[in-house]
Amino acid sequence: MASIASPQERHKLQSYIAYLTARFLMALFRLLPRSLSIGMLNLAALLAYWVDVKHRRIARTNLTIAFPELTPRERDRIGWRSFQNTARNLVEAARLPLLSPQNIGSLVEYDSQFGLENYLLARRTGKPLLYLTGHFSAWELLPAAHALYGYPLSFVTRPLDNPPLERYVLRLREASGNKTVPKKNSTRVILEKLKQGEAVGILMDQNTSPQEGIFADLFGVPAATSTSLALFALRTHAVVLPGFLTPSIGGKYRIRFLEPLDLIRTGDMNRDVELNTRVFNRILEGIIRRYPETWLWGHKRWKNRPDENSPDLYELSPEDLMEFLKQRKDRR
Questions:
Q1: How many Å apart are CA 278 and CA 281, to the nearest integer?
Q2: DSSP per-residue string spanning 146-162
Q3: Total tally of structural domains belonging to the chain
Q4: CA 127 from centroid of its chain's CA atoms
Q5: At what angle do helices 7-31 and 72-94 cross, to 10 degrees?
Q6: What is the extent of the structural domain holding 128?
Q7: Are strands 253-257 and 239-247 parallel, antiparallel or unpaired?
Q8: Are 91 and 38 in contact (CB under 8 A)?
Q9: Considering the domain boundaries, does residue 3 fall inside one?
């Protein structure tokens, strides 16, 4: 009589099947012409936006918070294009092993106005460097392209729950010369790298636990925001450089670096961490406002709330959400 697999064995089998499926798709995206892969996933992402009710509702809630002045149709347009952007990110991630210092210029260039010069300005200070960034455009491509131009970095990641897939993704991310730092227990490693004058990238546009951050306004609504970037910068005197990728003509991308930031220093560390974290959120909000279709709207950015009396924004009806936003605007 055949034995019944335990839950752990079933989970392990499911994880391995998911890993093999991902490996197959990634290999397929490398073999097919890039334009064909992107076109196929653009169609799949458009379909997913209308079929995946859960994430469409999350995106609609987020977009209502950010752009209450837009019509539902205008917000949906941003939403499904954001899904397509995520699909393109998958294609670019799959094709990372095909990139080299010799061919990276055919896909990614530095912006002529806000590009390499701001990065070099930050490096000329002789201080360690912290990149302020988020899930914009092809976010997996950004550090790889920058490294292939000769500027490798380390960046913080949350390991996947699938160990074989995590090892594979790790190889993709480090193929261009970068190093990844797992988020869990990363403080010591990051501090060591910064004290050695290295560059470290931190994506801080996602929801976090209240224990790991503060509630800082994003689009006028408090969002649980990691304070790690501010803490590291203040403790190590690192330069903070906002950086992100934007789409360009002909299916290419541009690396954009804003000017290095002057940190607020009042002498009160707790207050400085809070004030600088709020500044970082305002910068991220500005990028999102300018390039809304390139951001990851399907994530519950406002999931955690400041107190028990704050409503779960993702459970409100569209009408109740608009009323909540109106009341906040009136109070301001």
A1: 5
A2: HHHTT---EEEE---S-
A3: 1
A4: 25
A5: 90
A6: 11-331
A7: antiparallel
A8: yes
A9: no
d(Cα 318, Cα 332) in Å, to the nearest integer? Answer: 21
Tell me if 92 is assigned to some domain.
yes
Residues constituting the chain: 332
Q: Is residue 1 part of a domain?
A: no
Short-list 155, 131, 156, CA closest to 243: 131
Place of tokens 């837009």: 70
Q: How far is Cα 95 from Cα 31, in angstroms, rounded to an integer?
A: 9
Residue 2 lies in a domain: no
Euclidean distance between CA atoms 171 and 173, whole angstroms: 5
CA gap 253, 44 in Å, rounded: 22
Q: Residue-wise pLDDT tens for the chain (332 aa)?
A: 455 667 788 888 899 999 999 999 999 999 999 999 999 999 999 999 999 999 999 999 999 999 999 999 999 999 999 999 999 999 999 999 999 999 999 999 999 999 999 999 999 999 999 999 999 999 999 999 999 999 999 999 999 999 999 999 999 999 999 999 999 889 999 999 999 999 999 999 999 999 999 999 999 999 999 999 999 999 999 999 999 999 999 999 999 999 999 999 999 999 999 999 999 999 999 999 999 999 999 999 999 999 888 999 999 999 999 999 999 888 87
Q: What tokens appear for 210 in the block?
A: 């209240």
Tokens read off for 172:
């993709």
CA distances from 221 to 206, 328, 331 (A): 14, 8, 12
Q: Among all chains, which residue has been given the structure tokens 């210092």? A: 101
